[in-house]
Amino acid sequence: MGLSPPELWRVAVINHETAGFMIGFIPQKSKYRPLYGMIGKLGVFPECKRKGIAMFLITDAFEVFRRCGCSYSLVGTPKVNHPALKLYCKMGYIPVFEQLDFEKSLKSA
Predict the structure, then answer these.
(1) Which domains occur in the chain, in start order?
(2) Per-residue DSSP letters for 8-63?
(3) Confidence class for position 109, pLDDT limits 50, 70, 90
(4) 3-class secondary-structure state, position 100
């Protein structure tokens, strides 16, 4: 996946209780695209939702990405994850492409 500096491994804590987490990456530089940061995993516990935790974690990641020389940030989520889609748009992300995933069972028939 690429570089994942310790600053991109975050745990949000409220009142001494874990409220959420984020893991970010900076994929290896390519001659085809500028350096960018990627939000890999982001989660907030249900009892802590709607407190701005995810926004705080993403904003924090933006600062680390900038310090590391990234030109932009990417994040992905399934099309049915409407709360995440709303959050990412609110944070300034714009949809750039759609992807279909396929799976095949490897169990013998």
Answers:
(1) 6-90 (3.40.630.30)
(2) GEEEEEETTEEEEEEEEEBPPPBTTB--EEEEEEEEE-GGGTTSSHHHHHHHHHHH
(3) low
(4) coil
Specify the amino acid at residue 2.
Answer: G
Q: Which of 19, 22, 28, 27 is nearest to 10 (CA)?
A: 22
Summarize pLDDT for 97-108 with one digit per residue, the tens: 887 888 999 997
- The per-residue pLDDT for range 40-64, each reduced to its tens digit, is 999 999 998 878 999 999 999 999 9
Q: Which residue in the block uniquely carries the two structure tokens 């990412």? A: 88
Cβ-based neighbour number of residue 61 at 10 Å: 26
CA distance 24 to 65: 9
For the chain, give the number of residues.
Answer: 109
Phi, psi for residue 84 in degrees, rounded to 5: -70, -40
Q: How far apart are CA 68 and CA 80, in angstroms?
A: 32
